[in-house]
Amino acid sequence: MPDDKGTVLTTADERAMADELRSRLNGEVIDRAHPAYDGARAVWNGLIDRRPAVIARCSGTADVVETVKAARKYRPVVSIRGGGHQVAGSAVCDDGLVIDLSGMKGVHVDPSARIARAQGGVTWGELDRETQLHALATPGGEISATGIAGLTLGGGFGFVMRTFGLSCDGLRSIAVVTADGSVRVASREEEQELFWAARGGGRGIGVVTSFDYDLQSLGPEVDAALVIHPFDRAEEVLRAWRDATESAPDTVTPELLLWTVPADPEVPPELHNVNCVMVSAVYGGPSGAEAKSALAPQRDFGPALLDLSGTLSYVELQSANTWRFPDGDRYFMKSHFMDELNDEAISVLVDWYSRRPTPDCLIVVRTLGGAVARVGPDDSAFAHRSARFNVSIDAGWQDPALDDTAIGWARSAWDAIKRFSSGGSYINFAGLGEDASELRSAVYGSHEERLERVRAAYDPEGLFAPAARRP
């Protein structure tokens, strides 16, 4: 597959492409002179400041088809925007064409068939709102503002993944506009290689305009553990938590965060922004005595600062942390998959967290296994089914003057932990554009060559090659 960088468009070609799209699209076409340009090019991560030539805000699949045809004609760099929440900011590109699906918000739920169809601009909060009317869910992300498209195509970690799998495991089918302008439906029965690629390695296969998900019974209320421990016991708590995850049932998805106590009205003011260890877990089933019993071991790691465990709505759970990651703040994240979390690795994690440059920096340890591991290692493009943990180094800050410091901390922490890694990295927490080449094999593992073949089959001229190369 060509490693196509795209054509650098002349001013005349930019204008011609914009005019052509305006004549063909029902949606809005935004160029550099448009009064909405700065707002349209902005994404969740304020660190990203890219200036595309044209943004095509598609109103539906027909608009996407016309935009892909224009891209074939003019050959700009192409990027695809769904929710615009991805850390690396791949939704926008410099001097190219953004195929923007953010206005495509349709969701239809068939509760009898337990299927939801959602367009490519839908966020997890919007999807959950509709499915929870029927006490149904598909495994989503941990931040309600995240787009379903990027998370699902990259795999998709979530609060109930050990029970129901990754977001991509909930996929029933996709509708995708490929590089030739065709609209294809991919599923386990048709376009099987395309469907395989979409589940964990879906960048560069085309523009996915809608997702059909299988739904599971969950909610409207769920039980969750959330216990906040003092940071001076961090290593002790981490070791105890690690050991407890070995016997956790598949109905429980444990997670541990080195972070600060949230400035929440329910939290005593004297604890706001204090360093801590947060142990959380969600029961992927009905609320009640069985759930509370399964979660009890996640609450038993010694004296705590706060125990906020309890019952809440699934919609509340999914949006609980969204306010801590506001639009426009600056973010950088990198991750490692790990087969074990030994005592030395725990010491390194705690040491590097203690060096964090801002209170908005955190380290997250997620547990896999359960339903994630029950999918065959080659049944989807997601390449890390056997990993036990994922460790994510998440830098957050507001002041641009701290860019080098915050990113440097995250990179150094990631480097320090690398020797404990199983050699893999998660595409949705994979740094910025400059990390792409070194991480490609780490992200896709043994599936890299197969992915290249699939992309080449559907995009022989490399129209979406730049998108495929980005983290």
Automatic annotation (TrEMBL):
Cross-referenced Pfam families: FAD_binding_4
Spans traversing the lipid bilayer: none
UniProt KW keywords: FAD, Flavoprotein, Oxidoreductase
Cofactor: FAD
Superkingdom as given in the UniProt entry: Bacteria
Residue intervals of the FAD-binding PCMH-type domain: 47-218
Family from the record: Belongs to the oxygen-dependent FAD-linked oxidoreductase family.
Protein name per the record: FAD-binding oxidoreductase
Protein source organism: Streptomyces thermospinosisporus
